[in-house]
Amino acid sequence: MKESGAIHIIVSPESGSQRVVNEIIGKNLDLNAVENVVRICQKIGLKCSCFFVIGLPGETKKDIEKTIAFADKLRELGATPLCTIARPTYGTDLYKLCKEKGYLVKDEKELELGILNAEGTIQTPEFTPEDLQKYAEIIRKNNEPSEIIALIKSNPFFVLKLFFIHPLFIIKYMLKRYI
Questions:
Q1: For 83-114, how does the pLDDT look when each residue is reduced to its tens digit (9 = 90+)?
Q2: Fold of 8-141
Q3: d(Cα 174, Cα 85) in Å, to the nearest integer?
Q4: Residues 170 and 116 sit within 8 Å (Cβ to Cβ)
Q5: In a 3-state reduction of DSSP, which class is residue 135?
Q6: Where are the domains of the chain?
Q7: Is 29 left (phi over 0), alpha (psi -120 to 50) or beta?
Q8: String of b and e for 118-141 (b: at least 16 CB within 10 Å)?
Q9: Phi/psi of residue 30, each to 5°?
Q10: Is the overall model pTM greater than 0.90, yes or no?
Q11: Residues 57, 88 contacting (CB under 8 angstroms)
């Protein structure tokens, strides 16, 4: 990939807890392989980001703490951890599960606004949306400004296209995050 012109890849382990990856997400992924990919990228000079999702039903605070530790380990190896909070979209399996279990803290219309505002919309016996926001901030450790700048520099047409597709989301995100 590097030889063909790639300058940045994003790996999506989704969680730093092997239990969550296996049992909740159902992804056939060994987290040790993610570490190896980050090491290889660092060695050959390819930028690497790792994407995490927290707040899935069945996930515990201990699982999220494992994700934080794993994100920190990957950061030490040279990757940039990125994180989002799980958000159920109407009609998805996640939405149906959250609705069935009573985990939704907003109705259908508010869910859309919650997604636009980057707010958590799931509350389980393990965590609240506010807990998840704090955990996500810890994982990110304010990576976004440098990541946004890097993305703009590496692919300005993609960013422009994204802005025209989702301007409200981007404007609200930037206002909430940086002002």
A1: 888 888 778 888 899 989 999 886 665 655 55
A2: Transcription Regulator spoIIAA (3.30.750)
A3: 17
A4: no
A5: helix
A6: 8-141, 142-179
A7: beta
A8: bbbbbbbebbebebbbebbebbbe
A9: -90, 125
A10: no
A11: no
